[in-house]
Design brief:
Blueprint: E1 3-9, E2 12-17, E3 21-22, H1 25-45, E4 52-58, H2 62-78, E5 81-87, H3 93-104, E6 111-114, H4 124-130, H5 142-149, H6 158-169, E7 178-182, H7 189-197, E8 206-210, H8 217-221, E9 226-229, E10 247-250, E11 254-257, E12 265-268, H9 273-277, E13 282-283, H10 291-306
Parallel strand pairs: 3-13, 4-5, 4-6, 7-8, 7-9, 9-10, 10-13
Antiparallel strand pairs: 1-2, 11-12
The structure holds guanine.
């Protein structure tokens, strides 16, 4: 268990144990969804415009189908309108750009996402750039990423926005802390490094960005007050790699075969949970930590889009 302070009783020094707080992303996500649902009710009472999210799914990748299905279901649950645009695997880039243009010009649609990855023959960058920045509720458009770097109002990408919400709602102190991020993806690690360094709460950290080419990774993880892991390697971070009292955010989620579960598989994070939790002050479990927050983030961004909070 982490020891954060000591108490003296004449001759003996007693280490005072602090509890490890397990960050309940599922609960926070549900709370956020309830808050948004209440807002939608108020909009309906006032005959306002119901927020409308669209999702484009190209092809039939199983994981993408599940993710998009969950997003559409969450919209229905909280009272948003949702539109699912299903396109075949053979859709050309030109055809997809035409659909994107249609959504840009559809006044009823407040925000939309193009589920990634796209089939290999379509250039993702061309598609993301074609999304109108004011409808880019994924926060992937270069203009929105630039606004994030400049600390201007913008749509934050779902996973980083979800993590920021967890820091906020659990009132986790970040100012002056050393935040070590493992993974430099455009969707998680890279935006997270910008957000944690910003002059904001959460933020004001000294950030170290580690990645697959980092030498002596353990030297860095051992110095982390806050460790954000988005690596995609199950149980990579072990107890001997972290210090007592560390805040651990585990973004990894890998399906592995299990002989114990009924389904025949289980989900593992990038962190060896039990042993690292024993040293951590805060930790996100997998599943039930960061994962559920991504849907809440998308809904929050869609509400912002419908309120024209970022762009007029
Ligand atoms: N694929 C994996 N994560 C995401 C996401 O957050 N948004 C989109 N559009 N595609 C994804």
């Amino acid at each position: 268990m982490p020891y954060l302070c000591s108490a003296r009783d004449d001759t003996k020094i007693y280490k005072i144990k602090t509890m490890t707080t397990i960050i309940d992303g599922k609960l926070i996500s549900l709370q956020i969804q309830e808050e948004i649902a209440a807002e939608v009710k108020a909009i309906k009472v006032n005959n306002g415009k119901i927020p409308h999210l669209a999702a484009i799914l190209v092809g039939s990748d199983g994981a993408s189908e599940t993710y998009v299905g969950a997003k559409v279901k969450a919209c229905e649950k909280i009272g948003f309108k949702s539109t699912m645009v299903r396109l075949s695997e053979s859709t050309t880039e030109k055809e997809l750009l035409y659909i994107v243009e249609g959504l840009n010009n559809d006044a009823d649609i407040d925000g939309y996402i193009v589920q990634l990855p796209l089939p290999k023959h379509i250039n993702e960058h061309n598609i993301v750039q074609a999304i109108a920045p004011q409808k880019d509720v994924d926060g992937f458009h270069p203009q929105n990423i630039g606004r994030m770097a400049l600390n201007l109002p913008t749509y934050l990408p779902a996973t980083p926005y979800g993590i920021i919400q967890l820091f906020e709602r659990y009132k986790i102190d970040t100012a002056g802390k050393h935040c070590v991020i493992i993974g430099r993806s455009h969707i998680v690690g890279s935006p997270m490094s910008i957000l944690m360094a910003r002059n904001n709460f959460p933020g004001n950290c000294t950030v170290t960005m580690c990645h697959s080419r980092t030498a002596n990774l353990k030297e860095y993880t051992l110095k982390a007050d806050i460790l954000i892991v988005a690596l995609g390697k199950p149980e990579f971070i072990t107890a001997e790699m972290v210090k007592d009292g560390v805040v651990v955010i585990d973004v990894g989620i890998t399906r592995v075969i299990s002989e114990v579960t009924k389904s025949g598989y289980k989900l593992l994070g990038d962190v060896k949970y039990d042993e690292v939790a024993a040293k951590a002050s805060f930790i996100t479990p997998v599943p039930g930590g960061v994962g559920p927050m991504t849907i809440a983030s998308l809904l929050m961004n869609t509400l912002k889009a419908s309120r024209k909070e970022i762009y007029d």
